[in-house]
Amino acid sequence: MPLSRRSFLAGSGPIIVSSALVHRLAWGANDRLQVGCIGIGGKGASDVADVAGAGAAIVALCDVDESRRGKKGKGAQDVHPGAAFYKDFRVMLEKEGRNIDAVTVSTPDHVHAVASIAAMKLGKHVYCQKPLAHSIGEARRMAEVAAHMKVATQMGNQAHAGEPIRRAVEWVRAGLIGKVREVHAWTNRPIWPQGMTARPAAEPVPAGLDWDLWLGPAPERPYSSAYCPFKWRGWWDFGTGALGDMGCHIMDMPFWALDLKHPLSVEADAEGNTPESGPKASTVTYRFPAGTYCETLTYVWYDGNRMPPADVIDGAGLPEKEVAKKFDLVMIGEKGKFFFQRGNTNWATSPRELLEEFKAPSPTIPRVQNEDVEWVQACKGGPAALSNFSLAGPFTEQILLGNLAVRLGRKIEWDGVNLKATNAPEADALIRRAYRKGWELA
User: Fold this and answer.
1) Does residue 187 carry a pLDDT above 60?
2) pLDDT in tens, 20-32
3) Of 177, 220, 405, 416, which has the maximum CB count within 10 A?
4) Domain spanning 5-160+375-388 has what CATH number?
């Protein structure tokens, strides 16, 4: 008997059987991780390819748009013809529960938590794209479930596994610029529409797309090409704007290097934010307490082609436009400035001698081939992937806290332990969002 949405997400029903819940206890040298992929278009297509390239066997594919299945020989099922195809991830988990060890989740943001938690509650390892969740409460819950179920997890902020970030974390902690007091990070995004004041007119649903399944836990509304594909990022019901899209990449290294926990407060200056849509541009300012590697810290995020003031980026030896292209961020510490880029090690300091004369410490963070190999090996009993949900969950909470300040239009005093905006009780409805009936978070 097919499961209802409610019974599945509540963790009851005939799918909950021992063979689906038990981790594989022993792995032979030639055993392949059996993976089901949820969301196989866009970034999902590359996630399917990358996990397969890391040695996993793709045994099931799921997408609400049947056209993603195969197109002119380039679709996921064209490449993996033996993989079963499903439109509904709940049906995939019900029917393939005994056949898969792990899942990838590469859906729009609003489905990340419901899909990931459903899989983890069946004992499946999970790789989930960034941002880990659509709301702060979801990020907390995902980390809790992952810890309880003892599954191997990884968030898809790929550079976290790369040499540049891991080396920079070691160098910052070794005192490259001394204790850090400011971080400024930027992006040119959004590169999709934002600042919309009203919902678009209804359009016919494209052939092959199950719009009801695409909506999933989000409030019901008619289909429009203004949402799907890709442009969902700019709508609050589905996406998390430029900060959610890129913050988990660009803001990652300082969060890790400085061992940042809960901020004391966050406030935002946003242009074009509306109840429906994220802003056209924003500046978000977090303030963190002092720690081992930082003084009382100000961490500022800029999007929509905004940049820090000239005196902040002075010292890179480049015009502002070149600084914006060459680097992701600048850290300011006791000794000077560190201009960082996550994609390479062509960094700069001001004064230059800080980098030229720095005695690099011996590596202490494991180096890996890439994030997919790191996760696949973790699923097979190896060391935990370093962007696992115990790190990615709290990190995503802080990223999405910036959106809370944007949406409320006021400074937020933050109690991170209890997920409370102590000066803004109206924030509760955004911290833990509502779900469409039948899609409640387990």
Assistant:
1) yes
2) 455 666 777 779 9
3) 405
4) 3.40.50.720
Q: Where along the chain do its domains lie?
A: 5-160+375-388, 162-194+227-368+398-428
Strand order of the sheet with strand 329-333?
Answer: 348-350, 337-340, 329-333, 180-186, 294-303, 281-288, 265-271, 412-415, 420-421
Q: What is the pLDDT of residue 73?
A: 54
Q: Which tokens is 275 given?
A: 């109840």
Please give the Cα distance from 122 to 281 (Å, whole number): 40
Domains 5-160+375-388 and 162-194+227-368+398-428 share a fold: no
Peptide bond into 131 cis (omega under 30): yes
What does the block give as tokens for 349?
């300091």
CA 108, CA 408: separation in Å to the nearest integer? 23
Under CATH, which number does the domain 162-194+227-368+398-428 receive? Answer: 3.30.360.10
pLDDT at position 21, please?
A: 55
- Per the CB < 8 A criterion, the answer to whether 152 and 303 are in contact is no
Q: Which of 16, 64, 56 is nearest to 38 (CA)?
A: 64
Q: What is the mean pLDDT of the chain?
A: 94
